[in-house]
Amino acid sequence: MSNYSVVIEGRVDDKVVRVPWCVTPGSKIDKKYIGTSPKIKNVLKSYWKLVENNITFIRIHGAPVDQITNDIDLTNKTCLITGANNGIGLEMTKCLNSNGCNVLMASRNSYAANNIIKYVVEKNDLLRFYDINLASLKSVKNCCNAILKNEQKIDMVILNAGVFGLPWTLTEDGLETTFQVNYLSQIYLLMNIEKLLTPDARVIFVSSESHRNVNWTLHNTLAPTEDLVSLPKNKYTSIKAYNISKLCGILAMHYLGYRWLNTGKAVFCAHPGTFVKTSLCRNWWIYETLYTLMKPFAKSISQAASTPIYCAISPDLKGLSALYYKDCQRCEESDLAKDLHLSFRMHDLTQDILRERVKFIDDSVNMVLKSSGLQDQPKEIINDNLVSNYTGQIQ
Ligand SMILES: NC(=O)c1ccc[n+]([C@@H]2O[C@H](COP(=O)([O-])OP(=O)(O)OC[C@H]3O[C@@H](n4cnc5c(N)ncnc54)[C@H](OP(=O)(O)O)[C@@H]3O)[C@@H](O)[C@H]2O)c1
Fold this sequence. Notes:
This is WW domain-containing oxidoreductase-like. By secondary structure, this protein is an alpha/beta fold.
């Protein structure tokens, strides 16, 4: 597992060197620095080595997104991106578009999306806008209906839209807004369009390292309740709500990883970077200021788009699924996030919350249950069976 988040790339004698910071460039990675907090002395030593070695090119934080798509043919591929009109979502949209990929922009801002289609991208015939407000399940459903009506297939889905730093508010569905926008509505979207996914489709949750800060007590019988994920006002802080929503995304990845086992479909979580200056913090001036101050030291938006795009298209990930990535590298998620029992309990809760609000039956889950003869069993037996099947197959 690599724990570093800053990468220095350089060219020594025509050879690209890519190392985590505080490791001597051009030499083997010194393992004693990996997973430790970098010491300023070591960082300076690394930079000095770069200068000494006649490095012609230094890039901190890894490749910009266009280098990830280099040499990958995306013609005739279709990618659905939520929150595609802004920040990291827009960067991914532009990059995929310039590589010949059809992009379905699922956004709530039709004015911005239409301007992007008209003026920003190179191949505007490859972009299609779908109106979606993730704070409304009805809007999500309408968006899905439009996608199902107009599209033949989807090869990649990037669940990117997100909010942070909101004061406590409830959506029209009676749920805490951060939870619904960042997690629930995007799962609902995915469930509704699942039938359009190609046999080798990839789904990417744009995640965050902040999922590590959720401190629910972990034990196998933990059954999350609605109050735990859709925080009531007296338990709410916007940071807590954001962290929980990102944890839920990773748990959903594990559930889907099971559900799509041996199908060819894959699902990944990608942390784009930390302190990336986008509009994410627009709702909270303290964080807006912090992100502005950190901008010189953080990834550019293009670099932040690299990991989700890497997960969506890279041939390196063929045959893999249900993994968490950062800096285009496999990274361990938190213990809570990789708890399979919890991921199934969270799926149950998600279904319950949705069922209560929309007349919704997840046909595909019922199909899985039917084929395994479990449909008439109590929920606990179903879950235990599904989990033990899963662990049995990945060992
Ligand atoms: N920036 C970072 O440092 C960072 C770090 C870790 C993870 N992330 C994750 O990266 C993803 C992209 O964030 P970003 O930094 O690019 O932020 P951003 O620029 O604010 O983009 C967020 C996108 O989500 C859309 N969105 C928000 N609420 C919506 C709603 N109710 N319905 C439909 N769309 C909605 C926004 O649309 P509007 O433009 O219409 O508001 C925007 O397109 C998020 O999931 C975020 O959690 C970011």
